[in-house]
Amino acid sequence: MRRTAAALGATIMLSACAWSNAGLPASADETTEDARDSDVILNMFQWSWTSVAEECGSTIGPAGFGYVQVSPPQEEIQGTEWWTSYQPVSYQIEGKMGTREEFAEMVQKCDEAGVGVIADAVINHTTGADTGAGTGTAGSSYALDDFPGIYGPEHFNDCREDISDYTDRDNVQNCRLSSLQDLATGSEEVQDTLAAYMNDLLDMGVEGFRIDAAKHMPAEDLAAIKSKLSDPDVYWVQEVIGAAGEPIQPSEYTGTGDVHEFDYGRQLKSAFGGSIAGLDSIAEGKLDSEDAGVFVDNHDTERNGETLNYKDGDTYTLANDFMLAYDYGRPSVYTGYTFEDFDAGAPGSTATEVGDASCGAEEWTCTQRLPEIQGMVAFHNAVAGTEVTDWWDDGDNNIAFGRGEKGFAALNNTEGEVTNTYRSSLPAGTYCNMAAGTDCTETVTVAEDGSFEAVVPAKGAVAIDVEHME
């Protein structure tokens, strides 16, 4: 049953009961007693709640992912375009992805599969000023500076113009991002409203947040909001797109949680489009590993050309292999749908609803179903907590490295297979090649001195670890 905006107004002011459950590790290099078995996040862009629930049990949990990141769970404006999900009308958990009941069931089913849920939280703004008035996907009305029972003119920043100068901190954090009505997140009343929404999600079992457009909110505002949560130590990762010469930098936001390291994905695109030999220095000049959320692509960068995406085929898969094999940041694997039109919503979308995802249909990328990805998630989990050792490269597009005495990976970014002898710190034995999948159809034999010969396929990898041996 869909609740009215008036009912929401009463709901969001209720103080949430304290809720605790397994959280993400404190950092990419640390674990806590009650943490999920893996820190790998699967970003499920525009997947309905019922589709996520089903996939958690059938694929995501068994594959070893620790978390799923889901699209924003709030009422949004109507429209088939994907970006309508990022224009909140109210904080009802009723929207295009499904109902409140379906969301709660998704969280429960994912938890039963060993998977936590991270919610994409849109708290910087509401709807676009250019859209004027309308009715949201759950029936709530809205207009310029007017969200009945939630926000009025006093809850928005005074600047009513679009951002025009990214070298001006005040302009970036107080004016409108692409016409989106900018909330006055420094206001305690706004902070209370946003914290109540997030506490509602925590009460439902959500274990973390991705903070959309974090760059457009002062870091101290976000710290104040987080302090009002029922679990102020809850994991979150913040979207802060850094650029040289700008006054607002990702490092400002690490005090409250992880920050997405956009330069990581950019460098992967450059390297896999040229030479991967220099990837041993990929952490240089970036956020500390324990503060960085990393990805090959996300819903924005796959569309704007900033990173690789599914259209890059085997190169894209290989870049994900590297991310899962190497020791830097907290990895997020992306799964969405195919597109030609930048604005196109998920397959079968209507103005108020997103249809269920289907991995049997070509329109959905279903990266999590690829044998290579599932195998590399298992490899990542097996070598967690180890440093990169025994780096080797040919100066161009073949690299190899160990993960201490637990694992070893070799990547070939050329169009032909490569046979090579590698030297590892692994004990002797016969190992499953996890880069080929989890069924151990391919094996590698390591000698007493840690050396082994392997044939690395074109645009492919070999990855072995001590937890997956014959």
TrEMBL record:
Short name of one Pfam family: Alpha-amylase
InterPro entries in alphabetical order: A-amylase/branching_C, A-amylase_C, Alpha_amylase, GH, GH13_cat_dom, Glyco_hydro_b
GO terms assigned for molecular function: alpha-amylase activity; metal ion binding
Occurrences of domain Alpha-amylase C-terminal (ranges): 389-469
Stored PROSITE patterns: PROKAR_LIPOPROTEIN
Residue intervals of the Glycosyl hydrolase family 13 catalytic domain: 39-380
EC number: 3.2.1.1
UniProt signal peptide: 1-18
Cofactor(s) for this UniProt protein: Ca(2+)
Protein name according to UniProt: Alpha-amylase
Species whose genome carries this gene: Brachybacterium faecium (strain ATCC 43885 / DSM 4810 / JCM 11609 / LMG 19847 / NBRC 14762 / NCIMB 9860 / 6-10)
Lineage of origin: Bacteria, Bacillati, Actinomycetota, Actinomycetes, Micrococcales
